[in-house]
Specification:
Elements: H1 2-11, H2 18-26, E1 37-38, E2 69-70, H3 73-87, H4 105-116, H5 129-140, H6 158-163
Length: 164
């Protein structure tokens, strides 16, 4: 918060103003990555088509399960489908784009380990949260007459509720 207050004082813009938001955007070292994503238009996501804002980009603040689509996602998915079509099961090991399916976790684990403060051998990257919840319950949940409830937050992703 101190850093935000310092920017507020230096810029003269109120912390909760559009001017302050623009100031912070101008300082964003990752701003150049914005052009790598598809930002839906207001009228594409159910906004009022009769307004002047219909053709403007949305203010998209959902980073949950579906953030903005990377522009290269379609190309990469098509490349994987082509690998599958042309190589079948051998795509697990030999991949034209150097993305073999069997060892896909290795570079991800190497990058994730320092983020979570662990050694690569201590990190596992797999599945989705819902799948992992299901696997954990299947492996470890042993209800008894006295201990049979599982608590989950009320606003969890719907599939997480189904898994529990």
């Amino acid at each position: 918060m101190d850093k935000l207050r310092a920017v507020e004082a230096k810029s003269g813009a109120d912390l909760v103003s559009a001017q302050f938001a623009c100031e912070m955007d101008s300082r964003d070292s990752l701003a150049h990555l914005r052009s790598e994503f598809v930002v839906p238009k207001v009228n594409q996501v159910g906004g009022k088509s009769g307004t002047d804002n219909g053709d403007k980009e949305c203010i998209y603040m959902c980073g949950n399960s579906l953030g903005l689509q990377p522009k290269r996602a379609r190309r990469v998915v098509c490349e994987e489908l082509d690998e599958w079509a042309h190589k079948g099961v051998t795509g697990h090991f030999r991949h034209a784009q150097q993305r073999p399916w069997v060892s896909y976790r290795e570079p991800v684990v190497a990058k994730m380990a320092p983020i979570v403060g662990a050694k690569p051998a201590e990190v596992g990257v797999m599945n989705s949260l819902t799948t992992n919840i299901h696997l954990m319950l299947a492996a470890f949940y042993r209800p008894t007459a006295q201990r049979y409830k599982v608590l989950i937050e009320g606003k969890a992703f719907p599939s997480d509720h189904y898994a529990v």
